[in-house]
Amino acid sequence: MIELSGVNFGYGRENVLENINLKTNDRDFLLIIGPNGGGKSTLLKLILGLLTPSSGDVKILGKSPEKISSQIGYVPQNFAPNDTFPIRVLEVVLMGLIDQKIFGFYTKAQKDEAINALKIVGIDELKDARISELSGGQRQRVYIARALCAKSKILILDEPTASVDTKTQAEIYTLLKRLNEAGTAIVLVSHDTNIALSYATKVAYVNRTLHLHELTPDVSQQAFIAHLATHHSHFCDVEVALKGCGCQGGFNG
After folding, report:
1. How many C-beta atoms surround the C-beta of residue 68 within 10 A?
2. Is 105 within 8 Å of 98 (Cβ atoms)?
3. Are residues 29 and 58 located together in one domain of the fold?
4. Which DSSP symbol is given to 223?
5. Which pTM was predicted?
6. Whether residue 208 is found in the same domain as residue 246
């Protein structure tokens, strides 16, 4: 799905990324971590085709990123809609089909497809709400639905849970896991390693260079996180790290 070979990139004379090698397949859930300024966002931009490496190759589905952009769904870290612009949730999701409009209009089948994408992410009841009225977690689900509507084979997310509480983080990671199991490759940058590491199949630590770690997703920890999100009004990194929630008799995954 994604292949970077000997990639170097710099702004001016200073290299931000050096000799980056990376391969992922359609079943991978790739987590990208590393310090601020280490090159994580630059790596995403190279994969998206927004930047061109100074040397080396970037291939997406065997082609250069700009030739396959329709196969890549992107969910940005922050998107602050203009409160005075009354765009609604369904309209945002339909943007995933904008190049398929017929005479400038969406068909009923396309609208049904967008509503189905909203059902998959669990917020179809908000289809007529203004995007500016939604919480951070709800907006992220809308952008994920837009990518689903576009039938993206790769979903790239930049800090998708940066502005949401731990419960919503767990819900978003559970959603991403479902999409990944259905055949969508997931690539995300995150600082929520306590939760994210339970779902990842690969972890790329980026700090100028890239060190790749292969993981086996922790299914029992995923079940525990789902339990916390479902049965507890509060949980945070403490419960996740300690793998204990104080339930009577304990949690049995």
Report:
1. 16
2. no
3. yes
4. H
5. 0.84
6. no
